[in-house]
Amino acid sequence: MTAAPLADLLAFLDGSPSPYHAAASSAARLQAAGFTELALDAAWDPVPAQGYVMRGGAIVAWHLPASATAATPFRLAGAHTDSPNLRIKPRPDAERCGWHQLNVEVYGGILNNSWLDRDLGIAGRLTAADGTHTLVHVGRPLARVPQLAIHLDRGVNDGLTLNPQDHLRPVWGTVASGGAGAPFGEWIAAEAGAPAAPVFWELGLYDVQPAAVLGADASLIASGRLDNQLSCWAATTALAGAAPGSATAMIVLNDHEEVGSASTTGASGPLLEQVLERLVLAHGGGRQELLQALAGSTCVSADNAHAVHPNYPERH
Asked: Collapsing DSSP states into helix, strand and coil, what is residue 113?
């Protein structure tokens, strides 16, 4: 990978600490390439040759060929914007043994011990009482899940067992110092510049260590959320530079793949189907043309796979 694309990939990863930010990062790159955003609750008349729609942490984008008709097939690349992490609960405030802590829930299949002793920031989306959303990204070291000192667990190297509800709760202040004394809702509203505490949030913790090129030969990339924001970046970059032939070039970046995809923005939800149908309708087609187009379409599911781990070759 040459320097310019590599730098853009690292910037994408650092700028996408949540699914909502990943969708926004993709949208920014598409806008720069001439794509136009359409609203799902508005009429699509006319439909731009290069366009996209967003819903939460998901985005669907297309580039129509000049010869597009109602029955033109689709060439899709699909990826997902979410990654396993610790999500902040609706009632986050906790105090124990002189510490201020955050109540969190495991999202997806995390490796529990990998979250220990890391500098954690917070990112995601706030929802106000009127239903409006605000993206928030607190990118400084804010919280930490401290591991128990070896002096208090001499057998830790023989096997570490973590209870997510007890042992993965991060600390983010001390009672004696008054740090983090405000309720979390008020604090996060102030960080986001919101006038009042949100009525709901979708927020996750993430490691603030930036993405980096690794190795003496600079042949490796180290970063959080490579699964699957790497594929999101690749799909977005490919579409932004695509010159469609006889089919409509498209990407769909879904949210909630790590927890089953069964949501309005997940791959099992209606978003992609609705967009495909509206593209057909915009060209004067109906159900027959939609089925015609689908019969000639392909979709590549792009996700990360495991390379051979040099310390555990027997597992492969």
From this structure: helix
